[in-house]
Design a protein that fits this description.
Mean pLDDT: 92
CATH superfamily: RRM (RNA recognition motif) domain
CATH class: Alpha Beta
CATH topology: Alpha-Beta Plaits
Structural class: alpha+beta
Distance between the termini: 30 Å
Strand order of the largest sheet: 1-2-6-3
Helix content: 25-40%
């Protein structure tokens, strides 16, 4: 995956994410399933102007959902937990 603008899909703003930001300076993003840790690191550093120290990723399978007698499947997705350097922060999370 070469295009860094397609790596980060959206930030995930949750209560657990708020605690991780305050205690460990970690931020959670939903990322493209084919993105690797180096691409995620480069995208966060490029778009937010911060120094990333660690990236952890998790893959989630989409759930099977039913609508009457028909069934379908939600899309698979990937989550990344990004740890920033001690003095860095991302301002868009502080607004919410």
């Amino acid at each position: 995956m070469k295009d860094l603008s397609k790596v980060i899909k959206r930030p995930m703003i949750t209560e657990q994410g708020a605690m991780m930001r305050e205690m460990h300076n970690q931020y959670i993003f939903q990322v493209a399933p084919e993105a690797n840790k180096m691409e995620i690191r480069q995208a966060v550093e490029h778009f937010f102007g911060v120094k990333v120290t660690q990236v952890r990723t998790m893959n989630y399978r989409g759930k099977i959902k039913r609508m009457g007698r028909h069934s379908g499947k939600r899309a698979d997705w990937k989550k990344a937990i990004v740890t920033l350097a001690k003095d860095d922060s991302i301002d868009m999370f502080d607004i919410v």
